[in-house]
Amino acid sequence: MNLEDIVNDAPIQIKKEFIYRRHKKGSLIIHPNEQNNYLYILTTGIAEVYRQSYAGAMVSLYIYDSYSCFGEIEIFNGKMKTLGVIAKQNCETIAIHKTKVYEWMKIDFNFNFSIIKQLASKLISSSDAAAHLSLLTT
Questions:
Q1: How many folded domains does the chain comprise?
Q2: At residue 134, does pLDDT exceed 60?
């Protein structure tokens, strides 16, 4: 089951807490270095997560497309601050407070599975990037 179907089939008590937002191309969806208590599901458009150096250089870390999610790291690790997420096209998101995410996880295996799949994909991508960079410096 894909995330779009999972979102469409979300329990009513979860769905009524969805916060729908629109983001213009070039606008920040999430500002860097902030606390975050929400899972974001990108329903349309393309967004990019980036990290900015002290010198101002921006490094792209991940590209999100429709029915990708972000913000999950911060809601599972309260010490983690956000990275910037920018709309590369006009985008629409659903924001879900972490208490509702936890509630949804308790009652929907498919939602859990989808979140874990996306986390695993990000972990593999990050590991590959780190390995590639370490090979350049040896």
A1: 1
A2: yes
d(Cα 137, Cα 135) in Å, to the nearest integer?
5
The 10s digit of each residue's pLDDT in 106-118 is 999 999 999 999 8
User: b/e per residue, 107-129, with b = 16+ CB within 10 A?
Assistant: ebeebeebbeebeeebeeeeeee
CATH of the domain at 80: 2.60.120.10
| Measured distance CA(90)–CA(87) in Å, rounded | 6
What is the residue whose two structure tokens read 């999950």? 72
CB of 14 closer than 8 Å to CB of 96: yes
pLDDT surpasses 70 at 138: no
